[in-house]
């Protein structure tokens, strides 16, 4: 898998010296079309029904690859027993580098950046879960189409716009990564959402 980047507050320069980024870069580039499809089919077999799009499979691929490399999965930000605060987590952390893998609704894009910002700036965050640079992974429009994700899923392109708008309140350096299915042939393994299927059926015939 290839990727695009948007460098916010010199995150790329900071990450260039970190072995965590080297490991993450290697993982991203190693993800293959076949691995995503195989993972999707395995999820479908276990659940008895295939997810509509490929986002669940891509999430699982990253979990499978990152955890054995020492990335902690879903670290909590706060010690408080309050249920609302306990649910604030990042996706992964290793060596003060926080990672979010986001295929959520477009409205959740700013919250992805907010979690990373809090993890870097709040003194209330659990010390071992504090970060000094973040990485946020999103699907590009190309990956969103290839994996037949819901039309409401936020993309890399939208995330870059949001981060520019949030600059006045975002001191934490963040590298935004847009995942690209470069050279991947299309596939019909993903059934897509009802809305996407309707949009496709409304297209004129060739």
Describe this structure in words.
The chain is α/β, with parallel strands linked by helices and 206 residues long. The chain has a single domain (2-183, 194-199), classed as 3-Layer(aba) Sandwich (Restriction Endonuclease), CATH 3.40.91.20. The protein has nine helices and six strands. A six-stranded mixed sheet has the order 1-6-5-4-3-2, sandwiched between helices. Helix 6 links the parallel strand 4 (97-102) and strand 5. Helix 3 (33-47) packs across helix 4. Residues 196-206 have low confidence and may be disordered.
List unreliable stretches of 5+ residues. Answer: 196-206
Number of strands: 6
Shape: globular
Query: pLDDT average, as an integer?
Result: 92
Helix proportion = 40-55%
Oligomer: single chain
CATH topology: Restriction Endonuclease
Rg (C-alpha, Å): 17 Å
Number of helices: 9
Class from helix and strand fractions: alpha/beta
Proportion of residues in extended strands: 15-25%
CATH architecture: 3-Layer(aba) Sandwich
What is the number of independent domains?
Answer: 1
How would you briefly describe this protein structure?
With 206 residues, the protein is an alpha/beta fold. The chain has helices spanning 11-15, 19-30, 33-47, 55-66, 83-86, 109-121, 141-146, 156-165, 194-201, and strands at 2-8, 72-73, 92-94, 97-102, 133-139, 174-180. It contains nine helices and six strands; from the N terminus they run E-H-H-H-H-E-H-E-E-H-E-H-H-E-H.
């Amino acid at each position: 898998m290839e990727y695009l980047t948007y460098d916010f507050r010199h995150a790329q320069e900071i990450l260039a010296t970190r072995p965590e980024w080297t490991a993450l870069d290697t993982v991203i580039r190693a993800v293959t079309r076949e691995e995503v499809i195989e993972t999707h089919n395995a999820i479908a077999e276990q659940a008895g029904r295939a997810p509509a799009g490929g986002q669940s499979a891509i999430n699982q691929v990253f979990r499978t690859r990152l955890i054995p490399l020492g990335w902690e999965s879903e670290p909590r930000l706060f010690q408080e027993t309050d249920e609302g605060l306990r649910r604030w987590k990042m996706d992964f952390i290793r060596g003060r580098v926080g990672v979010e893998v986001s295929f959520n609704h477009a409205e959740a894009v700013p919250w992805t950046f907010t979690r990373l910002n809090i993890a870097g700036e709040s003194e209330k965050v659990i010390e071992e879960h504090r970060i000094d640079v973040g990485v946020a992974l999103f699907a590009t429009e190309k990956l969103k189409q290839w994996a037949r994700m819901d039309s409401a899923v936020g993309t890399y392109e939208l995330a870059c716009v949001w981060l520019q708008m949030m600059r006045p309140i975002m001191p934490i350096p963040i590298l935004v990564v847009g995942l690209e299915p470069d050279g991947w042939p299309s596939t019909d393994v993903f059934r897509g959402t009802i809305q996407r299927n309707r949009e496709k059926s409304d297209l004129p015939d060739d």
